[in-house]
Design the sequence.
């Protein structure tokens, strides 16, 4: 049975993940265990959540450069409200999520209604959020609130002696919800249509304005949620958290097989894109002698390879059409 | 009067003048320049000196933006170039030997040329969107810079190398001359030869310009190479100014500042036209703004918020839809029919 061409990138991604994990298992003792696999989720929960939001943005043909800063701002707002103002987490967390969503909505509205390129608007958003962090405080705010520490330390036992953190469970739920939204709801289909061709989507009578703004709202919300999860992970708020994170996120989405021009891709691919980044980090930490900077270089190379792959595939599809 | 107002440098110059005026009101000795040991000292000189790397990067960025591209990797190239220069100097037996300095500088310049060429090949050869193509080097470049410096801050003790970024020639900082040289070369190449037109033509429509005989691929490759070289020289200025290379922080946020400078200078992100002098003024505005914020005692962290607002405002003004929305509101206060008639009559 010939494989449908649109599945090639995602299949390559999954194969790459399996190959990397197998290679790691053969090379390093103690690598092949359920816990190492689970740790990929535990350590990358926030990346996964952000990348899910970014997937929708890229599927719609846009880009969101503000995610890293929104994460930092979320940690900062949470930390300062919980730690310095003494607000209960039950109030702070919804507030932070709302803030992220509103931030995204405003950017989306500017992008759509004033037709300015997404990257420049989100670039301004990136500056703004990062600057607001520093306005709150330039120092790290450590959190010792019992709720946050409990969230950070709770381990959900799995059969086989391994465990997941609450953050990882949240991330998995987000991925499941996103897969459902992308493939089984009207909104998801609108996003794909919008990314395929905005003009056609408009002519078909799809709510282009609403979809576009909602996509950025979703991305802002995901980033804020990732920020909350990041706060659980780091137990602190700091203006320099998640610097350069937008690039990791975009890399995860692209390695996952989503076309940067929009309209083609799967949320599941993003999931594996994040896992691949996690495996690279794990291999480098198992290797021991390599500096962590190799992670960035390897991810850059992978990004390059996948973009070339996309180019080759999409150009072949074009020639087939002709 | 209206022709002056329509000049592309009018608004950038107004903003710069307003900023300088504000500074003068705030501290009356802002414009005073003192001579000390044959060097000039003063806030204005500082702005020029500290702004020099940004101006260089922004000049390169202008040409890239003119071809409807964008180069996100300039910050990383700044870091790599500084790192390689400092590494090769620190390895030398005599850090003050002229040969060593020259080799290091040439090495750094050559490397940044190659990095620029890599970006250019991805964009023009492989046809990848510029924002993504340069994103790769932006991610990997910091890693490369860290590998070169071994994760440490390399410090050099060479006074000859320090001269590049902090020395002075004819009482002015040497870096100003470097910037002036690059600017003059860029201006001559783009405004006295057909190259500038080629770049603008490629920015408007690459395939149309290809059909009219312009080698669009080559033009695109060339602007990225030039942008890489500019960033490399900026890296040399920055690292020699502090006599050290920091792979992590050198050139951080430079890509954003450079894009901001280009946009303030009147170059549209949609490509097709560019103003090098506008960019220089844009970069000076950013540097003056930063200096002002430091001087009036506002925490420097707010710079980012201010910059974000400036980017947004400039982009909104550039947006046709936004201007139309404002214009519609303005016009509705008058008599539309009368206005329409007077426009047809004239």
Sequence:
């Amino acid at each position: 049975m010939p494989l449908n061409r649109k599945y090639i990138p995602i299949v390559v991604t999954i194969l790459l993940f399996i190959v990397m994990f197998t290679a790691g298992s053969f090379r390093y003792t103690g690598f092949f265990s359920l816990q190492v696999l689970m740790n990929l989720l535990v350590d990358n929960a926030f990346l996964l959540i952000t990348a899910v939001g970014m997937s929708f943005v890229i599927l719609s043909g846009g880009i969101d450069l503000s995610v890293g800063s929104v994460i930092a701002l979320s940690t900062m707002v949470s930390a300062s409200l919980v730690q310095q103002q003494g607000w209960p987490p039950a109030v702070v967390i919804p507030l932070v999520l709302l803030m992220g969503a509103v931030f995204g909505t405003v950017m989306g509205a500017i992008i759509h209604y004033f037709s300015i390129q997404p990257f420049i608007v989100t670039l301004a958003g990136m500056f703004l959020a990062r600057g607001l962090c520093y306005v709150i405080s330039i120092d790290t705010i450590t959190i010792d609130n019992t709720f946050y520490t409990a969230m950070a330390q709770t381990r959900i036992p799995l059969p086989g002696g391994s465990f997941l953190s609450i953050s990882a469970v949240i991330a998995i739920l987000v991925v499941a919800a996103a897969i459902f939204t992308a493939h089984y709801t009207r909104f998801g289909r609108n996003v794909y249509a919008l990314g395929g061709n905005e003009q056609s989507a408009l002519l078909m009578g799809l709510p282009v304005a609403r979809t576009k703004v909602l996509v950025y709202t979703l991305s802002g919300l995901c980033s804020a949620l990732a920020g909350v999860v990041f706060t659980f992970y780091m137990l602190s708020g700091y203006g320099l958290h998640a610097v350069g994170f937008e690039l990791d996120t975009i890399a995860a989405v692209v390695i996952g097989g989503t076309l940067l021009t929009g309209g083609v891709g799967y949320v599941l691919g993003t999931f594996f894109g994040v896992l691949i980044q996690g495996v690279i980090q794990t291999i480098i930490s198992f290797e021991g002698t390599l500096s962590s900077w190799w992670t960035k270089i390897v991810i850059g190379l992978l990004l390059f390879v996948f973009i070339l792959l996309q180019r080759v595939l999409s150009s072949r599809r074009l020639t087939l059409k002709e | 009067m209206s022709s002056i107002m329509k000049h592309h440098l009018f608004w950038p110059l107004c903003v710069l003048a307003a900023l300088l005026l504000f500074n003068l009101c705030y501290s009356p000795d802002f414009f005073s320049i003192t001579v000390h040991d044959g060097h000039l000292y003063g806030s204005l000189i500082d702005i020029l000196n500290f702004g020099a790397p940004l101006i260089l990067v922004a000049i390169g960025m202008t040409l890239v933006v003119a071809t409807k591209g964008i180069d996100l990797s300039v910050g990383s190239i700044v870091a790599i170039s500084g790192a390689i220069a400092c590494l090769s100097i620190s390895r030398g037996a005599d850090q003050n030997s002229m040969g060593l300095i020259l080799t290091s500088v040439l090495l750094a310049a050559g490397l940044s040329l190659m990095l620029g060429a890599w970006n250019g090949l991805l964009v023009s050869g492989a046809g990848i969107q510029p924002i993504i193509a340069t994103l790769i080097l932006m991610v990997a470049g910091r890693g490369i810079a860290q590998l070169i410096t071994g994760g440490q801050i390399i410090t050099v003790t060479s006074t000859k190398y320090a001269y590049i970024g902090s020395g002075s020639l004819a009482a002015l900082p040497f870096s100003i001359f470097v910037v002036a040289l690059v600017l003059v070369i860029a201006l001559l190449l783009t405004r006295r030869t057909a190259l500038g037109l080629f770049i603008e033509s490629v920015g408007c429509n690459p395939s149309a310009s290809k059909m009219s005989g312009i080698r669009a691929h080559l033009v695109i490759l060339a602007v990225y190479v030039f942008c890489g070289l500019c960033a490399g020289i900026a890296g040399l200025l920055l690292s020699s100014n502090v006599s050290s290379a920091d792979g992590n922080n050198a050139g951080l946020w430079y890509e954003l500042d450079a894009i901001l400078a280009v946009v303030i200078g009147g170059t549209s992100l949609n490509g097709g036209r560019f103003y090098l002098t506008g960019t220089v003024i844009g970069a000076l505005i950013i540097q003056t703004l930063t200096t002002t914020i430091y001087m009036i005692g506002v925490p420097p962290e707010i710079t980012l918020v201010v910059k974000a607002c400036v980017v947004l405002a400039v982009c909104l003004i550039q947006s046709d839809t936004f201007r139309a929305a404002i214009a519609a509101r303005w016009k509705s206060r008058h008599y539309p029919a009368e206005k329409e008639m007077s426009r047809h009559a004239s």
